[in-house]
Specification:
This protein is an alpha+beta fold and 335 residues long. The chain is 31% helix and 30% strand. The chain is built from 7 helices and 13 strands.
Length: 335
Amino acid sequence: MRVNDVEWTVDSMSRKRRTLIPIAAALALVATATAAPSLAAKRGWTPGPEKYGDVVVQNVHIRMSDGVDLVGDVEYPADKATGNAATGRFPVLLTQNPYVCEVPASGSNTYYVDRGYIFATVCVRGAGRSGGQFGFMSRRDQLDGVELVNWAAHQIPGSNGVVGLTGCSYLGLTQIFTAGALPANSPVKEIRAVGLPILSPKVDIANVRVEFESGCVANFTASRVSTERVRKLRFFQPRQYVSIDYSRQDVVMFTVEPGGASPGFPQIGMTKPSVVQEEPLRAELRSFLDAVSKRAVPAVTLEDGRRALALALEIVAETQRHSTRAGLAQLAGLP
């Protein structure tokens, strides 16, 4: 299937509406995260026995791709008899900390380490002992997370390549942002994105072409420069065209059918599948409440949201890269 054209126009909204939509999006994310533990509980996890001591290597410097050093501490399972790091390979637990980011020589995550996990605590950019500028979960922080996962998988001595993310509060949110940018099993093959300023110093119109490994191609247009309000998704595939209008909440399908009124001229049939119309924000909140109160599977799962976030952030990054290559960064107001 070839997805050929998607056009979104950003229209002005009241302050109340602009506030509700991010809140609803956050609630939907919480709903997926809330539903996840019930699924995980079915699989279960039983901690192993306490087999090891622990040894801490402090002030480990990890060089990021932009030259900034992040600093952290790594706790290793240790041989109880010798106190030295245990032989063998172990999974790694990684936490990214913006607070008091220093593990004492005696260790602070002994529950996991004593059961065969390496525990890496790294100060986020601009916090604690790490260099760079603090960005409060910026795009650069997210890229740091991806690079730290790769470091934990491939460069920490004794790592078996399996990395888990752990932490709560800010440390928990860094897990979501990092996971959203990890490319593992991504079906996206190539992204091309262009953004231009028209009405403001920022990007007012952007065009994106995404090619998937399956051969499907998607073209997206987002614009604040439009004479009409458009919310459409269009699919083009052999012998069929499907138009989904989100504003009117209807679907129209045009299909080339065998035969026709005249030889050599195809018969084109039009059908309109039945659509249950509902106010989008209400539907989103209902899905959230069902996920919490009934433990129903959310309409948009955590994994779906993760993949969408990863793709959206990569599109933003590609827009910035194109702007830099074309010399548009200053004009477009992009960093």
